[in-house]
Every structure is written in C-alpha cells, then in structure tokens.
Amino acid sequence: MKRLWVLLGAGLLPLLAEAGPAINVGVVYDYLDGDKSTYLKRVFNGGDSTAFVKINIHEIIYDADGRPTELPVKSLADSSARDGLMASPARLIVPVNGMQGTRLLFMGERERERYFRVRFVPVVPEKEDEFAVSVEERDAYQQTLAAGVNVLAGYGTIFFVRPKDARFNTQIDERPGQYALRNDGNTVVVVDDLKDCAVSDENDCQPVTKTHVLPGRTFRFEKQAGRQYRFKLVEGAAQKNVEVKG
C-alpha cells in the first residue's frame, strides 16, 4: 500500500486493493502566488482500471498555538460563490495510464495568507456522485472490481494561497548551540531538504526534513559540535543554500 507522509497533517486516505485505479497527484505542496487566481492540478492513473476521483476541499485555520482545524469553505456574503478555494471540475474520470486536470480557483478575501486541504479520493461511482456515466457503465465497473479485494488510495495535499501583497522577511538568529529562523513576512517560507550530518562521516546523517514556516512563526534547532546542517531556504521563487556548523 502506498504511503505518503505530509507535514501540517496531510496524508494518505486508505479506503480497501490489490487491483484497480492507482492515482498520483504529483507534488504534495502547491502554492498560489499573489498575482494568480487559478492553478492547474493534474491527476495521473497508473492502475489497471478507470479512476473516478472526487475532490474535496477544506480550509485550514491555525489557532494561536499553531494547532490546525479544518473547516468547510464558506460562501461569500450575498453570493453563491465560495470564499476560498474551489475545484472545477470537482469530479474526474481518469482512464488507465491517462491524466486529467482540475483547475483550482481562488475567490474571496486575500489580505492574509490562507491554507487549504485538497483531497483527491477515488470512489466506486454511485448515482448521487454525479459522474457522467450511465447506470450500465456504473454496474459494469462495480462488477470489474468485485472480482477481488481492492484498495482505493486517495491523497491529501496542502494548498497555500499567498496574500495579494506577498512579502518575504526572514530573520536569522544564530547563537552558540542554537540556530533560529523567524518568518517576519506575511507568507510562508520553506526550510527544504534539511540535512543534519557528522562532519567526519557524511554517512552519519539524520533523516532529511522539510518544514514550512508560517508568518510570525520561528523554526529552530539545536546545534551540536562536530555536526553540520545544510538546507535550502525557499522564499517563493527564490532559493538560497544555507550551511550551519555546530
């Protein structure tokens, strides 16, 4: 069974397969720049049967302690449009070894950065799912899968919507025994591909990590003598290689 570990709580949505559709949504983290309002997300099916995929979106709200809560996306006041992210289409039929795309469209308030969980969930189509298939096609598909035990694995991704006036301002505080990076901007920065290795043995390394530092938050680690720390500091389209010695 496939596994996908996602920071900020995204991850694998196991449903129960040996054969059947096997979707791939590409990268787990997507970012919508301040001057953009739409984003094309593609779904590939590497399985041996058609994938019927439903797309569900919830907004992630963080409290003062950084704990996330997922809430349904609300509608704009006096409008049927959503105040947040929506997928068009929200249902995909992806053929074997084929690819389909959905356009993620953001509408609403954008004075601050906002965060969304986008789930791509393969399903066995039912009448109420509103897939564009006939009753006969649904029955034939269900009979195909009924021959064995099937696993339909879906994926949850994190979608970052940067504010309209995105501004990066990363402050570094390095002291004996500690390294701290504070995000004083108004949009997320990424500490990517962090490697913690012994100076004397390049094979003596901790697992590589990736951390998203939200606005107003601080990322820090303890420096140890005889070890070195390398990572990429990603601020939007800009990347900088950083090396820190213990």
TrEMBL record:
InterPro entries referenced in this protein's UniProt entry, alphabetically: Ig-like_fold, PapD-like_sf
Keyword Signal included in the entry's annotation = yes
Keyword terms: Signal
As given in the record, the signal peptide range reads 1-19
Q: Which Gene3D superfamilies does the record match to this protein?
A: Immunoglobulins
* Name the record gives this protein: Pilus assembly protein
Q: Which organism is it from?
A: Pseudomonas prosekii
Q: What is the lineage of its organism?
A: Bacteria, Pseudomonadati, Pseudomonadota, Gammaproteobacteria, Pseudomonadales
